[in-house]
Amino acid sequence: MEIRFQNSPKETSAMNTASLRENFLVQHLVKDDSIQLVYSHYDRVIIGGVKPVNEKLVLPNHPELRADFFLQRREIGIINVGGAGSISADGETFELNKLDCLYLGKGMKEVSFSSNNADDPAIYYLLSAPAHMNYPNRLLNKEEASPAVMGAQETSNHRTIYKYIHDAGIQSCQLVMGLTVLSEGSVWNTMPAHTHTRRMEAYFYFDVKPDQRVVHFMGEPKETRHLITNNHEAIISPPWSIHSGCGTADYAFIWGMAGENYTYTDMDPAPITELL
Q1: What is the DSSP string of 4-67?
Q2: Is 158 annotated as a binding residue?
Q3: PANTHER family attached here (predicted)?
Q4: What residues have CB less than 8 Å from 46, skipping those under 6 apart?
Q5: Is 41 annotated as a binding residue?
Q6: Side by side, which strands form the sheet with 214-220?
Q7: Which residue stretches of the chain have pLDDT < 50?
Q8: Rounded CA separation 87/102 (Å)
Q9: Distance (Å) of CA 129 to CA 1, 122, 166, 260, 270
Q10: What are phi and psi of 256, to 5 degrees?
């Protein structure tokens, strides 16, 4: 498990491209028959990718957690962005199709991941945060996630938002999680941008075509930077940073947050006309 520490706005403003990518871009999350994890000291969130192809994969414990098992003091949200698969938690099995979400509460001792078909394996993206109490495990498919259509073709941001883990959906201690799918011909996400100093955020880009990219914008509203991202790459977004993206074609991304306030609408606007 890779460990990443926090960076201040002042420190970040002086970074070159290589330093920005080293600190905020998470690559190589999705590998065949592997679980890849990154521990961020922004709200102690763990970002992960799981791709079981030929074998069942078991969520490992890590000495850095100083825990008897991974979810001893944590909760986890998992979204499938690949083929059909299943997740087992302490003997209970959940079937996940593409874009389905599973929440597992604190205290689950053994979690394993499988694919139904090795030729079309499941790809699970996970986000885990510390938890102070136990909430029930819950599976929510994309049709149940109250999809909301936002934006317009005229502004190149016509998109569908699926909200899974939030104050009016799956209950959690502090996790918020959902995803956004851009319509064909639309490329902008989360613009106008915003910040929320009560919680960090992570983006995971998927369904990015091999010859296309997404330009992710970050930084303070008056000190913005950008990162070029590829398919199945994630961005760690500090609480003080905007988080927005523009693709060279349509794409999708998972957004996830953790921190003091898990109300989905808690945002501090950063108007387009004030960005620098």
Answers
A1: E----HHHHHT--HHHHHHHHEE-----TTEEEEEEESSTT-EEEEEE-SSS-EEPPP-GGG-S
A2: no
A3: 4-DEOXY-L-THREO-5-HEXOSULOSE-URONATE KETOL-ISOMERASE
A4: 1, 37, 38, 39, 40, 74, 126, 127, 128, 129
A5: no
A6: 188-189, 244-247, 214-220, 223-229
A7: none
A8: 9
A9: 15, 23, 14, 12, 27
A10: -145, 145
| Residues sharing a CB contact under 8 Å with residue 190, sequence separation 6 or more, in sequence order | 180, 243, 244, 245
pLDDT of amino acid 12: 97
Q: Domain segments of the chain: what residues? A: 7-132+145-274
What token pair was written down for 18? 């290589």
The first and second tokens of residue 139, run together, are 């599976």
- 239-24-14 Cα angle (round to 5): 85
Q: Would you say the C-alpha torsion 200, 42, 166, 99 has a positive or negative sign?
A: positive
The two tokens of residue 201 are: 């955020």
57 within 8 A of 89, measured Cβ to Cβ: no
- Residue 190 is which amino acid? T
Classify domain 7-132+145-274 at the CATH class level: mainly beta
Annotated binding-site residue? 196: yes
Q: What is the pLDDT of residue 155?
A: 92
Instruction: Give the span between the Cα atoms of 205 and 43, in whole angstroms.
Output: 21
Residue 206, classed as helix, strand or coil, is: strand
Kindly report the pTM of this predicted structure: 0.97
Asked if 175 and 166 count as a contact pair (C-beta separation under 8 A), the reply is: no
Q: Helix, strand, coil: what percent of the chain each, to 5?
A: 10, 45, 45
Pairing of strands 148-150, 159-165: antiparallel
| Tokens found for residue 42 | 């922004």
pLDDT at 4: 97
Q: How many helices (H) and strands (E) does the chain have?
A: 2, 24
Which amino acid is residue 245, in one-letter code?
G
Q: Which residue has 């961005």 as its token pair?
A: 235
226 is in an annotated binding site: no
